[in-house]
Amino acid sequence: MSVHGQVKVRTSAEQKAARERERAEKLRLYSTQYENILNNRQLMDSFNLLKQTENILVDHPDCFTLWNIRRESIVKLENDKQKEYLEKELQVTQMCLKSNSKSYSCWYQRQWCLKQLKEKFNLNLYQNELELCKKYLEYDERNFHCWAYRYYLLERLCPSSTSELEPFYENELSFLRSTIGINLSNYSAWHYRSKYLDKLLDHNPSRRSTLLSTEWQLVLSAVYTDCSDQAAWFYARWLLFKQLGIQLISEDEHIKPLEELDELESGNKWCMLALCQLWKGKAENNDKRINYLEQLANRIDPDREQFYRDQI
Fold first, then answer.
1. d(CA 175, CA 180)
2. What is the mean pLDDT of the chain?
3. What is the 3-state secondary structure (H, E, C) of 127-179?
4. Which GO terms of the molecular function aspect are on file (predicted)?
5. Are 176 and 135 in contact (CB under 8 A)?
6. Which domains does the chain have, with CATH numbers?
7. Using the 8-state DSSP alphabet, how is residue 143 labeled?
8. Residue 219: half-sphere exposure toward Cβ, Cα within 13 Å
């Protein structure tokens, strides 16, 4: 609307009211469509149900009840139509992911489709799906739903031949390293790195010492790059105490580099906490350990005071 040739600029209150009206209308429409499906689903054929549920899910992909109805509808179809609609369902879920790329229901529906296509029609699309994951991880490299889906795919692409397992694991570790290099705060990448390092170590125990030493250098590089980023510190704790164990933790290789970092980044809680845990495990520097824990509790991180005092 314009007044005397000038476009009227809405105030914040007007904009908020307009958004509320739009939201209320969308909710009304959604509720009407949703209730219509639930009340009349026994009267509708599968094709009609699939069409109507799709209309809602494109904008509201988190409604798991409608996905359940779609699964029931698809499995009732004849084989040729079932295959067609399973393939189409992959397109539907991709449209829905554009609305919400972190929808649990949507990613699960995609898994279900792949499983049905593989088991009933021997159609293996797992490898192709990795490209979709690549696309969504480029958009948001910390989308843990996509990471979980990617892990699901890789578990089904894992070779059965023992000779092919090691290159498979190494290839994934290489991908994860490059992803971490882009964003050190990528918790999912660190998490799945721990899973595939575990698999590689179990597959070839003879490489354990070399692999863990190389992995520790990766961790040191990360914490020296940004010692305030907790993602790398969580991984460091897993590597030190779950993989190496206190007996194999070396003063020169593991503790000294963190003591040097502590000097460079005085007061960094993550480095101080890691050192306290290492000193306790090695039964050394107890006075300094207690002093650090008191500093953490009283001054540096008082919100977690009791956590630190419990370790004194």
1. 9
2. 92
3. HHHHHHHHHHHHHCCCCHHHHHHHHHHHHHHCCCCHHHHHHHHHHHHHHHHHH
4. Rab geranylgeranyltransferase activity
5. no
6. 11-157 (1.25.40.120)
7. -
8. 27
